[in-house]
Amino acid sequence: MDAVLKYLPQMLEGAVTTIEITVVSVAIGLVMAVPLALLRVSKNPLLWMPAYGYIFYFRGTPLLVQIFLIYYGSGQFREELQMLGLWGFFHEAWFCAVLSLTLTTAGYTAEILRGAIRSVPHGEVEAARACGMSHWLLYRRIILPKAFRLALPAYSNEVVFLFQATSLVSIISLMDLTGVARVIAARSFAIYELYITAGVIYLIITYGILFVFKKVEFRLTGHLRDREHVEVTADGAVIR
Amino acid sequence: MLDLRGYGWMLWEGVQLTLLVGVCALMVAIAMGMIGAWGKLAHNPVARLAAGTYTTVIRGVPELLLLLIVYYGTPTLIQDVATGLGYDIIIDVNPFIAGVATLGFIYGAFSTEVFRGAILAVPKGQIEAAYAAGMSRSQMVRRILLPQVWRFALPGLGNVWMVLMKATALISVIQLPELMRNAYLGAGNTKLPFTFYFAASLIYLGITIVSMLGQQRIEAWARRGVREA
Predict the structure, then answer these.
(1) Distance between CA atoms of A162 and A171, rounded to whole angstroms?
(2) Considering only Cβ atoms within 10 Å of each terminal Cβ, which end of chain B, N or C, has fewer?
């Protein structure tokens, strides 16, 4: 227990790194996922096939392989990357970790968005067309806002999965929460105490993320809930 | 296209171990999932609490950390307890067993939700009818519930298998010579990391594709005799 209290500040620092990596990957991944999902639902095979290939590859292979492919694999192209001036990035474990997490979450999120876009009621699309909306206006005003709302529950799971997947970056030497726990456990011999403490911190943050998503979902679906029952009497008083 | 410099057999041996770990872990997961689902739907509050805690904790803690806890943490915990009781023992966990146990335990939580949904999908009237016809509880479970639960659970279990199969790559961290570990060794020996990891990723992709096709066939087989909507 002493070891846990002694090393808690360092573990919380690791947790901050974990959150940083999660936030950066989730944000960039979401920005990438929207065009990817739009390409995926396109009817033109030149557009949907590459998007399908991308999504299939990143969903069908383990994240650890992708991290190693980028972090160690880039070494095979060192000269080419040096020529392009990109070697500095690929030499950094942080960059490689965020890059692979971003590419993965973009694939998973695009697939979630594709499902959501498909489940926008056809009547709404027809109504928008009947109002004379152009293709892009239709996507911007009707399909995408609705799809984001429909995708939210599945997307919250994806964010939680990505948050937990960040623990893999400790394998390529980054000092995230798992990385800190591994290093201190090896030094202090308080192995299970430290790992369990790390687990509790992960648990708290995971349910924190889910709580925030529940709140956001509640806000966004206000118009779908039953209205509060309100009666107004003859003299204008409101009875709830 | 991919020149593996004579290390291809190592990847092949790795694939075999990956599949073996995956299948063993899946069996543990299915067993854990059935116990978990029974706990979640039980009237007994202790069973409900235990099953709820199980799925909550597994959902909140990363797989890698659980693997480290099982592989490095459990032996020291048992040794510490034994020392406290006056025994001096040294425990070494086999990486294969640690990997199967951890993955089975983790994906058992996911299968718990799958089985719970599948049990609830069986119409209640059928269960009542079974009791009304004079069946005992075990007869009802065996004749009415389980045959249908399997069919409802198959799509979910297929997903569990595909995620689990990819998660076996994590066991390379505790040096089990499965596909990922052997790709790592091959990459180190040949200094061709991209080639080896790319080959490994294509093999995982191949396993995913075969699993998807297999899942479709099994689901079609399970649906035989069921009228489609």
Answers:
(1) 16
(2) C
